[in-house]
Amino acid sequence: MPKRRMKLKKGLRLAVVLLLALGAGSWWYFGRPDGQDARHLQLYGNVDIREIDLVFNNSEHIDELLVQEGDRVLKGQLLATLHRERIQAEVAAAEARVAARKAALARLETGSRPEEVRQARANVAAARARLSDAQVTYDRIRVLLKDQVVPQQTVDDAKANLNTTRADLDVAQEALALAVQGPRLEDIEEARALLKAEEAQLQLAREVLKDTELFAPVAGIIRNRILEPGDMVSPQKPVLTLAMINPVWVRSYAPEGYLGKLVPGMLADVSTDSYPDKTYPGWIGYVSPTAEFTPKNVETPELRTRLVYQVRVYVCNPQDELRLGMPATVTIPLDQPKPQPGHTVPDCATAVMD
């Protein structure tokens, strides 16, 4: 019995030592999140892309659609056009109004023509001559009235004619003064303001005409052709869906233990099962400030209850090999220098791993 007890105690001691050793090893390996290598962090996720719903900033019927689904397009490429006859007529009318306002302003700024001034001087001279004649006539009739040769009514008529010709002279002299001085400054400023208003209307009409053409804002692939020629469009109704192909990004999730080691701008490698021998240079573009549960469609039931932080890793895709939803593996070297505040964000021309 003593020997059996001795063996039992030794067996218990050995089991305790083994359990302690196993616990220490497990703590060393599993104490770090996901049992990762301390020099690298490996994350898993899916490729995501940004899409743009392209709309016309106008309301009109579609005239032409120049692209099909799956077409690669360049930035600034013409994709579709609207019927433009009505808008072209509006532009022509606005151009005519601007031309009329310019002519009116030029007339005021030029002032009176020499011929107009000479005409005004001639009118003054003619008014003076008529006044002189009326004065002589009135004086003669007054003499005849004393001799009772003419009635009083004749004298009154001659006096009225004298006053009228004197007023005509005043009018002619004022007209001459206006012709010499030219238009008022207020009239010129009003004409300038009216010209600016018409020019603004013309610019607006031309912008509306430009809005009959739809251009690609960035390079990408036409993913969806929503409307067809003849359909009525509006600024609230998308015509095409454009998928941006470069850069794309991988939506992955990092455990809390690594949150302090991940900084936007850090470089990363991305690989996929479709191209196992190829890696794509990328960089961390976003680390979520809030935790969330691991997405239920990518992890086991045990991991679904763990809180993780979303990490977006942007990756260059010049050959269009990374597609929407493709599973991807992200490897982030943790021993690389952390980008400092105010650093230049990497792009596809600079994101090259050392």
How would you describe this structure in keywords?
354 residues, alpha+beta, Elongation Factor Tu (Ef-tu), domain 3, OB fold (Dihydrolipoamide Acetyltransferase, E2P), 3 domains, four-stranded antiparallel sheet, 23% strand, rod-shaped
Query: Biggest sheet: strands, sense, closure?
Result: 6 strands, antiparallel, barrel
Oligomer: single chain
CATH homologous superfamily identity of the largest domain = Efflux pump adaptor protein, beta barrel domain
Q: What is the name of the CATH class of the largest domain? A: Mainly Beta
Helix-strand pattern: HEEEEEHHHHEEEEEEEEEE
Radius of gyration: 46 Å
What is the SS-derived class?
A: alpha+beta
Distance between the termini: 68 Å
Q: What does the overall shape look like? A: rod-shaped
SS summary, helix count: 5
β-sheet strand percentage? 15-25%
CATH fold-level name of the largest domain: Elongation Factor Tu (Ef-tu), domain 3
Give, in spatial order, the strands making up the sheet with the most strands: 1-10-14-12-11-15
- The overall pLDDT, averaged over residues, is 80
Question: Could you characterize what this model shows?
Answer:
With 354 residues, the protein is an alpha+beta fold. The protein has 3 domains: 34-48 and 245-354, Elongation Factor Tu (Ef-tu), domain 3 (Beta Barrel), CATH 2.40.30.170; 52-83 and 212-243, RNA polymerase II/Efflux pump adaptor protein, barrel-sandwich hybrid domain (OB fold (Dihydrolipoamide Acetyltransferase, E2P), Beta Barrel); 88-208, Helix hairpin bin (Helix Hairpins). It has 5 helices and 15 strands. The protein has helices at 2-30, 85-110, 114-146, 152-181, 185-210; strands at 40-48, 51-54, 60-65, 72-73, 78-82, 213-215, 220-225, 232-233, 240-244, 248-255, 267-271, 279-287, 292-293, 307-315, 327-333. It has a 6-stranded antiparallel β-barrel. Strands 2-9-7-4 form a 4-stranded antiparallel β-sheet, with no helix packed on it. Helix 2 (85-110) packs antiparallel against helix 5 and helix 3 (114-146) runs antiparallel to helix 4 (152-181).
